[in-house]
Amino acid sequence: MSTLTHFDASGQAHMVDVGNKAETRRVAVASGHISMHADTYALLQAGNSKKGDVLGIARIAAIQGSKRTADLIPLCHPLALSHVAVDFRYQDDACRLHLTVTAETVGRTGVEMEALSAVMAGLLTVYDMLKAVDRGMTIAGVRLLEKQGGKSGHWRADAEDAEVAP
Predict the structure, then answer these.
(1) Among the options 39, 53, 87, 128, which is catalytic?
(2) Is 128 a known active-site residue?
């Protein structure tokens, strides 16, 4: 197990110095889901929520969430994202909406936190837009599925550990 990079030799928190790292293409894929009552799920699928286009707004929120990660997570570096893709998938048998986000950049540090922040912002937006009819919705399974680039190379979650396949 490697050491925690966000602490210096004396145990104080610090922003990791990435100045000497090579710029490479970096990609991260994260996912999560929100479960709800069947009536809420039907309302979501019908697209006639009182607040408007739930998935359209959640897509924009996810993209915005990825772009604002450094404002939310204290030791994250601000990144110039080159691409963010947001994909929704319905799971009818569980009244569940899955969200998968792919974040990309060319830079000195990875985009895992940007992908994860995007998933949370998107799912929280779905909750916000539907909470008037279902306050019992649950957000779960938020996790990194894959990352590419940098010194550590390519990593993918084990298939048996990944609840949601990209």
Answers:
(1) 128
(2) yes
pLDDT of residue 166: 39
* Helices of type H across 7-92: 38-46, 54-67, 69-72
Residues in the chain, total: 166
In Å, how far are 46, 52, 86, 89 from 102, measured between CA atoms? Answer: 26, 25, 7, 14
Residue 56 makes CB contacts below 8 A (sequence gap 6+) with none
Q: In what order do the strands lie in the sheet with 81-91?
A: 81-91, 96-107, 24-35, 138-148, 155-156
Which residue is it, tokens 């609840």? Answer: 163
- For residue 101, give the amino acid letter: V
Averaged pLDDT, 95-103: 98
What does the block give as tokens for 47? 């697209």
pLDDT confidence tier of residue 156, bands split at 50, 70 and 90: very high
Give the N- to C-terminal CA distance of the chain in Å, as an integer.
27
